[in-house]
Amino acid sequence: MTMEATIARSAAEIARDVNARTTSAAEVTAATLAHAEAVEGEVGSYLTLLRDVAESHARHVDERVRNGAHLPLAGVPIAVKDNMCLENTRTTCGSKILEHWIAPYTATAVARMLEAGAVPIGKANCDEFAMGSSCENSALGVTRNPYDLTCVPGGSSGGSAAAVAAYEAAIGLGSDTGGSIREPGAFCNLIGFKPTYGRISRYGLIAFASSLDQIGPLTRTVEDAAFAYDAMAGYDVMDATSIDRPVEPAASGLREDLSGLRIGLVREFDTKVLGEESDALYRNAYRDLERLGAELVEVSLPTADYGLATYYLIAPAECSSNLARFDGVRYGLRVEGEDVRSMYDKTRAAGFGPEVKRRILIGTHALSSGYYDAYYVRAQKARTLIARDFAAAFAGCDLIACPAASCPAFEFNAKSDPYSMYLMDYYTIPMSLAGLPALSVPCGWVMPEGASRPMPIGLQLAAPLFAERLLLGAAHAYERATNHALAHKPELAGVRA
Amino acid sequence: MTPDTIDIRYVAKLARIALTDEEIERFSKELAELLGHVNALSELDTASVPATAQVVESRNVGREDTVRPCLDREVVLSAAPQRQGGFFRVPRILAE
Question: Measured between CA atoms, how close is A322 to chain B, in angstroms?
Fold first, then answer.
């Protein structure tokens, strides 16, 4: 098999072949590492390539398969966002403050992927502490969009997305706080899937906003997202917010049509504001859902418009608290000072980048005496209203369909003021606030102004709490009927398979 | 809600981040703008709405009080910027 054919296989195909022993995890790993080393100069998906670790895991997987084990992700190369711990490897969060930190344990989600036979190729770049919508906030490296190297891959899981889009991994693990899996998924022509809050353990995921953070996969097919979900989902005693109720497997629930489903289109999300070309593509996507047998109904999310304001109080408030642990005492960077207070001040000043400082400051302000009720508590109440809107909407439909991002991938430095960047997540934040499972699936290509190449856009599907099986099942039907992801390939050396 | 002002020096002190004069100027302006945007929440009538702290299932999590393996002390201390024996070493906190 040629290298192109080896690396372009889906996770499902790789696992099938490795389990059948028509190929080995060692071969897949060697081909993936060689390809990653060839394209990393252009793409920059990884902050750390784990050559030795990957080879050792691959040997172990082959041995397990030889001994008769059937592993759902046998030999599947994965990219792990660098805010998830993997024992004895560098885990940086894309930050100077953790630049040289070696994780002493492995995150549960990562451990479950490895137990299922996955092979970690590297730690993927990300916006610092997962704060951003473009991956431009990493303090440690630049990641480019494999479909147009002048554009961003999306954030904050941009490295994981770019790695999968550029065939440097079959599955990328990302974390989504306000859209950080779905949006890079849309920008990089992938499935970006955020499960229900609490479905996948956050143990070993370095916290940004604990009531919102959720791990999920970035993949080239819906089937692969289902395999990754089935491997990772389920209760974990190490995470007090993990949900203790049975998981309905998703991979066995993939469907070929949408008959019997009612899909809600949100009255307040008028796609005309996205421009003529995107508007036409979304209308087309909705027609495709109907063509596949779904009944389209109008639903209303009257408070969704307050999602951004709610999110930009709650997430920074939680981050200001979570990031207090980075103080130069126990791990990470330390800048010496004349006393302990000045050591904290200097360490955090030198260790955090501008976006992290900005959010810590907003959060600290929102939680400070005299402002707590006006900002933080009010936002928590707005969050209740948004969740109630979704509950009312789902009384009339099974799934909701809407755009995944406000625009396609843009050029580096195109969004200079913070608020215009925050607006990127307008369509993803409400689902995060309500804890709902949601995903982005490719739904077409647009030619952005001034661009030389068409860029992908994503359709977002959202489901009620715990309805992952239905969500992935429906996304699979749409993907199979439309195949938008296959229309263009990244223009990278060795990626024309 | 509240006026779009923020005493950035005070907040930075609470947050334990030393800011340069340039950062103070920049963040004061940016944060005032952001607070202007989040003030939109004052349009919502939330008087009788409970606050959401947990979206999925709110319950207390307990476990048996049994000894379980934890991280090895040497491994944890090996990540410390400075250590002394079995402790993290920091600058003097109390005066003589």
Answer: 11
